[in-house]
Amino acid sequence: MQANVVHVSELNKSFGSRQVLFDLSLNIERGEMVALIGSSGSGKSTLLRHLSGLTRGDGGARKKDSSHEDSSHVDVLGNSIQRGGRLHRSVRQYRSGIGYIFQQFNLVGRMSVMNNVLIGSLGRIPRWRGVCGLFSSAERQQALHALERVGMAEYAERRASTLSGGQQQRVAIARALTQRAEIILADEPVASLDPESARKVMELLSEINAQDKTTVLVSLHQVDYARRYCPRTVALKQGRIHYNGPTLSLDDAHLARIYGAETAAIGIHANEISASPDAGLQAAVLRTASRLA
Predict the structure, then answer these.
(1) What pLDDT is attached to residue 104?
(2) What is the pLDDT of residues 256-273, one digit of tens each?
(3) What is the model's pTM?
(4) Which of 61, 54, 1, 48 is nearest to 21 (CA)?
(5) Sign of CA dihedral 88, 93, 96, 100
(6) 207 near 179, Cβ under 8 Å?
(7) Rounded to an integer, what distance in angstroms lies between the CA atom of residue 132 and that of residue 210?
(8) DSSP per position, 83-104
(9) CATH number of residue 177's parent domain
(10) Which end of the chain is more exposed for a tag (fewer CB within 10 A), N or C?
(11) What are the angstrom distances between the C-alpha of 67 and each of 1, 9, 59, 64, 104?
(12) How many domains does the chain have?
């Protein structure tokens, strides 16, 4: 079993003449829960989309060396998602192990909650059954169990569009559970939620990480959530990694360099973290610190 479930090397991405990722390299180990922070436009969402093969990196040789080869690549769960700006031909198959949670939920509003969660099993069943909506009783039972885990079983037959934002995000998490994702990429999953709904979503992701050993990479604007739930933090600034280490070592000086003038606006300071964090988080932080030392 590979230690690194995410391996990114020398990833570059441009939109027209504007480059947004610069020779970015990153490793994430199996079972980690990692926060991805940074200002708007720093490249967080762009990086996550590359990991799932929803976006291709820049192709062509960017370095003038003797081989003139583009060495950039993105590997997830031991599979090559893209290399040199080209997606692997089996990327759709590889996505079956990658759960993606969007800020705006990406549920089908006219469908029931149950059917939205069942979509997570499409990667494991014949295409014709998925197209016809023919799911077995075992698959439906698994979807119901996922809804129970996120506290949404009683809403199984409700239309997704009738739910609140926090409820919809919990359904999206249940969909990832039904998918049996080995890694969850959560792109600002609490950005549009009220504080109580955001807390529930972050607690669910933390529980899935702890209980199922699922690797979680979650992008956040709220640094306090990173401190509370994620032992390790990776911070981007203008498409480059400016911090990569234990979250508890992310002090005001680091935040000032990452956010600049925005530091005061986000209202987060190093001394605001609880003086007695959860023992499990404390242990995980110590493991991360020793691994990155």
Answers:
(1) 87
(2) 989 886 554 454 444 443
(3) 0.85
(4) 48
(5) positive
(6) no
(7) 36
(8) ETTEE-TTHHHHGGGEEEE-TT
(9) 3.40.50.300
(10) N
(11) 32, 17, 15, 8, 43
(12) 1
